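Record 1 of the preview.
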Amino acid sequence: MLTPSMTALEKQIVKALLGKGHRNQDIHALINTGRDPTVNFGRISDVKKLEILPATDEQIERFTLEKSLIDLQTGLSPFENERLVRAREAMMLAIQIFNMPLLRFKVEVFAVLSNIAWTYLLHEFYIRRDGVITHKDGSSFLLGQMIKRQDVPIAVGSVNNLQAMKIIRDAVEHKTLAAIGETFYAIFQANCLNFEKSLCELFGERVSLGKDLSYAIQISKMSIDQAAMLQKAEVAGPVQSIDAQLSKMFTDDEMSDPDFQFKVSYSLEKASKGDAHFTFSNKLGDGNPHNVLVQKVAADENWPHRAGSVVKKVVEKTGKHFSSHNHTQAWRKFGVRPKPGSLTPSGTNPKFCTYHVAHKDYTYSDEWVAKLCGIVTDDVEFGKLKNSKS
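->
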């Protein structure tokens, strides 16, 4: 554990650099790079009076290299904090791979990498506190052993979650799980949140993963029908077997703990214009939903115009000739709605257009009419539109 006083090696480095004519402020900056706590500037000058051997050129080169590799955001060094660096990277890799839509091997990879991440995390905790993470026979503490200790520094729900993750990991190491679907996703989500919580509580907010992981984006949205089909899909036999094993291990209260599995539900609420939304909630033990995200979605009256009405209004407002053909050119040019026969007819730009499942047609918003009027009254833009493919 570092203190405000310099280590023996740091003093040797300072002694050598002073002898080479380096400026005190430059040496001070080098010594304090990634250092917590920092060294007072006055201590640099004090080293001149010490009768110690200066560092060798090789020591200076290695010291400078190690300082250059410190992550200035987290303050972590791949040399001094190797376990913590590996713990963070293992979890980041697990999350990033799991979020890649084209991969089918994600469940297996997440289960294994998560185990590695947590092992390094707890190793770092125990090595800092006790100075040892090995048994008398030289073998390292296993994650399964550490979470059974009375002094394990994580919540009971997190321990239960890691026990469940171990069962899943052992299963994927020895058999294929077919289409695992979303059966264990809530357990994985809780595992990530627990890791972030423990990481920050044990080692400080500075090492948080929150700044390194961005929101996942996707190229298309899931329709309500698609979501319903997923809910009806049959769960593979091996998955049911693991699920049954977990159900026997934990009580209902333990399994409903958000540290064990984290579930976010959403509900559709009928509402008037401007008030309609999807409510995403984290249902905790008290049964009361806690809103964590509200996404505004306008009601049907936000798109009051059929195609013919759009054409008529544009002509009325601009006094220009604007045909149905021009309208088709416009919605295709700006990607406002899919082409006829599309497998995803509801894939519209909600600012300008919506699809009605009941009567299988499209209506348009006032914003779309205004946009078209702006184009039609601009001769150059209208010319570009008329020359575009319909």
